[in-house]
Design a protein that fits this description.
alpha+beta; single chain; seven-stranded antiparallel β-sheet
């Protein structure tokens, strides 16, 4: 399954990238994220791996992020692997005006189990909804400076 989501953030490209290019900030806009763990490579650079641990109440999940392209301020690409699925994500950032930035996120989900294949087939909106939620949370964090995740600002 492939889809593209975009959002306009009412802050400069420099401000958006400053907030995006920070592991610590992820706790402020990714609801459910409880911890991160550097696994290998130079953090933030091509090939680096990080474990992201999520707690959604009745469901815990760990993702392995592998950076496939880090070309800030314009691009950041990574894969996210967890049991049953791989998310290939390409993020593009562009300055619209002095105080506005467009974030385009292209996602491809590849199931590795029959159960996930069925979930993608019957519930594609759930994946799109989660992507849009994280993007809206990031927008709120950047524009308002307030955390929507587990961290406190």
């Amino acid at each position: 399954m492939k889809y593209t989501t975009e959002i306009i953030i009412h802050k400069s490209l420099a401000e958006v990238i400053h907030k995006m290019n920070s592991t610590e900030n992820m706790l402020h806009w990714q609801e459910g994220l409880v911890s991160t763990e550097h696994l290998s490579g130079t953090p933030g650079e091509f090939g680096a791996k990080m474990k992201l641990n999520y707690d959604f109440g009745n469901r815990k999940m760990a993702l392995i992020e592998t950076i496939t392209k880090s070309n800030f301020p314009n691009e950041f690409h990574a894969t996210y692997n967890t049991e049953g699925i791989c998310n290939i994500q390409q993020n593009f950032f562009e300055s619209i005006t002095e105080g506005e930035t467009k974030w385009i996120s292209k996602n491809e989900f590849q199931p590795t189990t029959f159960a996930m294949h069925a979930m993608l087939l019957f519930m594609p909106r759930a994946f799109k909804k989660q992507t849009k939620k994280f993007m809206n949370n990031f927008k709120y964090f950047v524009e308002k400076g307030k955390s929507v995740g587990n961290a406190k600002t």
